[in-house]
Each structure stands twice: as structure tokens, then as C-alpha cells.
Amino acid sequence: MAGSVAVVTDSTAYLPAAMAAELGVTVVPLQVVVGGVARPEDIGSGTEITFGADEVVAALRADKPVTTSRPSPQVFIDTYRRLQARGHRAVVSVHISGDMSGTVAAARLAASEVAAEGLTVEVVDSRSLGMGLGFGVQAAAQAAAAGAEVEDVARLASRRSLNSSIYIYADTLEFLRRGGRIGAATAWLGSALTIKPVLALADGRLEPLERVRTTQRALTRLFELTVAEVTGPDETGDGVGTSVAIHHLRAPERAGELAGLLHERLPGLGEVPVAEVGPVIGAHVGPGAVGVVVARDV
């Protein structure tokens, strides 16, 4: 709509293409490099050659090098200009944590470039990823559709993302080590073959939370941590007013089992979407990973 606030995010929000279209959100893909070949992360548009989870999982299992990189500032400049040409007077651009990707920095460079052309762009560092970012994007898009001002849309996106928790189980720390995304968890690498790490998002970075000995125990801990987040210290909450999503990479049975347990324990949750992550996050957590996002209403 002419004069409205547009919302932009990146592919690590893992919003289904149909949902992004319904919300009117523009998705900018990050880049994936497999064996020296660079392509955008698949966002389901079908308009270009991309890398999806299949190619990245195959490469990881074959020990081929897989790296990821931010979109260029020019990609964001072009995106913002297209939205301006469609009649939008402002843009809220919400992205993966700046401590895990240079995407926010690229978006800010682009925002400063288009400011001289009369377009206001508010860039939000979600300090999150996956649906921790995605829930913030949804809130922003809904506010923009309701006619909120750009500052209010950006503020809501930030609050919704910051008011979320993420817990991740990975079969191994090896892929996180390769990508340099594990912070203090490097201390665990010596025993990485004998432990099952549970990680948490802390101040925009993945940090070690617990070490367990079996996959089943790790999934149990994800369940327990989620219930504790939802029910609160008095354990009286039933999930009303809280959104939960589950991510995985090539572990649909594990993710489905966890979703079922949460539905039984927290009947007020409503739908718990289960979505496979794409190659950017998948390259770092590796096959078999399962993550839970808990977002509280703001």
C-alpha cells in the first residue's frame, strides 16, 4: 500500500514462502558456499538457482567445506529502492543477530545510502535467529499492516525478538566449531565425541548450557527447559500468551516427538510449528539438530 511501512527480513527467519507472502514480508537470502560454489540460500521463490538443505547436508556428511556469508549492501540497497518504488515511505529491516552474521551491518550500510534518497530504513538487530527472529518479523508485519508508524514497528520487532529464548541440541559441536559460532563452548571440544551438547542463545550468541550423554536425555532437557519458560517460576502457566516453534535439520521424528510432548503438557499453546532449518543455520548445527524457540507476548 502506498505510504505504508514495509518489512524486510533475511532467510534465517525461516518463514515459509506462503507465510512471508501473506504477511507482505520481503526476504533477502544469505549466501551459502559449498565446495567453492556460492549461491543464495533457498527461500522457496523458485526464481533462481539456490542451495537448499539437501545439498548442504550431503556436503557436511562428505566433509566438503561449507561456509556462509551475508548479503552484500548492494542487495539491500536494491531491495529498499524497489519497495520505495512501490510506494512505501519507510522500511523496517529485521535480521539475524549481529554477533553471528554481518547481515545487520550490511543492512545498515544500505540504509545510510538510501537515506539521501528520502527513504527511512530502521534496521533491527534481533539478537536472535530462526523463529526467534521470525516471531519478531511477524509482529512487525502485523503492526505495519495495521498502520503503525515506522518507529513503533521497529520497536515491536525488537521487543518480540528479545523476549524470546532459544535452546538447541546438536549431535556434535564439530560444525559449530568450523563456523566459529560457539563462543565458550570451545572448552567442550575435547570431549565432543562423548557428549551431547545443549546450547542456549545468550546475548545474541550460542553458548553452552549443559552436557548430557544421550540424545534422548538432550531432548528431555529441551522439553523441560521449554516447559519452565512457558509455565514460569510457579509452574502455573499453560501456554496461553506464549508462542513456541521447533526447528530441526534432518530430524523430523525427534522434532515431532518433542512437539507432541509439549502439546500434552501445555494445552494452551495452540499450534507449535515444526520447520526444518535451511542451509545457513544447518551448516553450523549439523544434521540431527533440534531447536526450540519460546517467544512471550509483548
TrEMBL record:
Gene3D superfamilies: 3.30.1180.10, 3.40.50.10170. One of its GO terms (molecular function) is lipid binding. Signal peptide: none annotated. It comes from the Bacteria. InterPro entries: DegV (IPR003797), DegV_C (IPR043168), DegV_domain_contain (IPR050270). Keywords: Lipid-binding. The keyword Calcium does not apply. Pfam families: DegV. This is DegV family protein. The lineage of its organism: Bacteria, Bacillati, Actinomycetota, Actinomycetes, Kineosporiales.
